[in-house]
Design goal:
The chain is of the alpha/beta class. 32% of the residues lie in helices and 21% in strands. Bound molecules: ligand BES, manganese (II) ion (MN) and zinc ion. The site of ligand BES has 16 residues, from helix 11.
């Protein structure tokens, strides 16, 4: 990953491949953002005009390259758009008003454009640790690439990938204070969260022939050891003994047996306990209710919820948060075979309830039901599950926004606000009681399908039945944002995105601070 340093160096003397500056959309054209004063001065204060001549407007996502002014050691200036220039009303208490997400996106755009570069200096508007953390995250997340499978066999493991261009190697952040505890803390937090988030992306991008439930569990065990987490892995035998009918039913068709992984981070001074539950379908073929071609090509991403939970628990441990966090990874591969669960089968779940499986492609709710019930047995203060659960949620909210459902209105709002705070698009969704009727089964306690309309909410209502009595719970359906099938944008690459990691980490931080529940 890109190495970050805080630097007090002046831009002209910096030895780097490029200097990154911000440009905002002002009322009369582009304006140079604070932080780039030295660069502007070297252009005789006419940089905004130069940028306008080059066609820059300051719009978000825009990138303009220009030769560095005479006297600069770096040869190139990279100007990235920050969107609308903030008005004075946003600039209180020595703040410049630039919003964290605009900085995060701009830094990500620049980091992506600097693929192959050795070193870049970032002279973006920094008015405190918040901005510094956002810029750091933008660089670390934007510079991400997944190259493990590129190149010849001998080259595998070479971080440079097939095109020979590695990610930006080093970034110096100007405007940060290397001796300021808050600045150093913001940088350290960004590094821990981004490293774990990028690891979640790696897991999502890994092909399903290499990442089966056992392999995922093994990776979790190794990480747990490294970060002092307790880990328990229930294999097929233990799941059978424990009566985990949902996980066993879904995993039964695959040659790779399912697993339930429990990762526990404990802090001696913790007063609260959060449980995170992740859907970890390492490949979703649909099972006997097989998905048609056109719907299965990206289904390696169906373990994105488990990857997010895994990353968030490790990040909480690395940050030493004063809260107990338990992560549950419900891992299975959904495949059709002679041993697969059939439409019409009835499963006895870990909670004791019976489920009639009407569609084997509605498998996520089955593995989650067992993991939610397992998580409930510890009576945590709250449970949050994360899942690429329904195509219906994508229809409702598009490919960048996840839906938030909950059994508690205040908690749903708190989760939504945490997501907004960290720059993850999310939206609250209801759990309409009338939709429960559609899941009535003539033979079992509930069916795994309900009416078609509101399919994402039906899935949420199903999950709710497997949350222990009186436990606060929220459900994040990340089917849209988990995997980016389009081109890279902002700090989001193609492929696995690491959706929900930052929201989960923020929830753990808020809980540790006593600001949640
Ligand atoms: N993993 C899919 C949902 C999904 C779809 C995630 C597209 C990401 C992108 C899930 O297991 C599924 O197949 N859901 C079905 C449920 C239906 C059968 C009730 C769906 O949404 O069609
Ligand atoms: Mn499915
Ligand atoms: Zn699925």
């Amino acid at each position: 990953m890109t190495a970050l340093t805080l630097s007090t160096a002046a831009a002209p003397g910096l030895r780097a491949d490029a200097i990154v500056i911000g440009v905002a959309k002002g009322a009369q054209g582009p304006v140079v953002a604070p932080g780039a004063e030295a660069v502007d001065k070297a252009y005789d204060g006419k940089l905004a005009g130069v940028l306008e001549t080059l066609g820059a407007s300051g719009a978000e996502g825009e990138l303009t390259k220009l030769p560095a002014p005479a006297g600069f050691k770096a040869p190139l200036v990279v100007a990235v758009g920050l969107g609308e220039e903030p008005g004075d009303e946003n600039a209180e208490d020595g703040e410049n008003g630039y919003d964290a997400e605009a900085l995060r996106k701009a830094a990500g755009v620049a980091a992506r454009a600097l693929t192959g570069a050795r070193k870049a200096a970032f002279a973006l508007p920094v008015d405190g640790p918040g901005a510094l953390g956002a810029i750091s995250e933008g660089i670390l997340l934007g510079a991400y690439s997944f190259d493990a499978y590129k190149g010849s066999a001998q080259d595998t493991g070479n971080a440079k990938g097939k095109n020979g261009k590695g990610p930006l190697a080093e970034a110096a952040l100007l405007g940060g204070k290397p001796r300021d505890a808050a600045h150093k803390g913001a940088l350290a937090r960004a590094v821990a969260v981004s490293e774990e988030l990028n690891r979640a992306r790696d897991l999502i991008n890994m092909p399903p022939n290499d990442l089966d439930p056992a392999a995922f569990a093994q990776i979790a065990q190794t990480a747990a050891k490294e970060h002092g987490l307790k880990v328990q892995v229930l294999d097929e035998k233990a799941l059978t003994k424990g009566g985990y009918g949902g996980i066993l039913g879904v995993g039964g068709g695959s040659a790779s047996a399912p697993r339930l992984v429990k990762l526990s981070y404990r802090h001696p001074k913790a007063e609260k306990h959060l449980a995170f539950v992740g859907k970890g379908i390492t490949y979703d073929s649909g099972g006997i209710s097989l998905k048609p071609a056109g719907h299965n090509e990206t289904m390696k991403c169906d373990m994105s919820g488990a990857a997010a939970v895994f990353a968030a628990v490790v990040a909480a441990a690395r940050l030493g948060l004063e809260v107990n966090v338990t992560g549950w990874l419900a891992l299975a591969e959904n495949m059709p075979s002679g041993s697969a669960v059939r439409p019409g089968d009835v499963l006895r779940m870990y909670s004791g309830k019976t489920v009639e499986v009407l569609n084997t492609d509605a498998e996520g709710r089955l593995v989650l039901a067992d993991a939610l019930w397992a998580a409930s047995q510890e009576n945590p203060d709250a449970i949050v599950d994360v899942a690429t659960l329904t195509g219906a949620m994508m229809l409702a909210l598009g490919s960048r926004t996840f839906g938030v459902m909950a059994n508690d209105d205040a908690f749903r709002s708190a989760v939504y606000e945490a997501a907004e705070e960290v720059g993850e698009p999310a939206w609250p969704m209801p759990l309409p009681e009338h939709l429960r009727k559609g899941m009535e089964s003539p033979v079992a306690d509930i069916a795994n399908m309900g009416e078609r309309w509101g399919g994402g909410l039906v899935a949420g209502l199903f999950l709710r039945e497997f949350v222990g009595e009186g436990i606060t719970w929220a459900h994040l359906d990340i089917a849209g944002p988990a995997f980016n099938e389009g081109g890279a944008f902002g700090y989001t690459p193609k492929g696995g995105t690491g959706s929900a990691v930052r929201t989960l980490v923020r929830l753990a931080e808020l809980t540790a601070a006593g600001d949640l529940g």
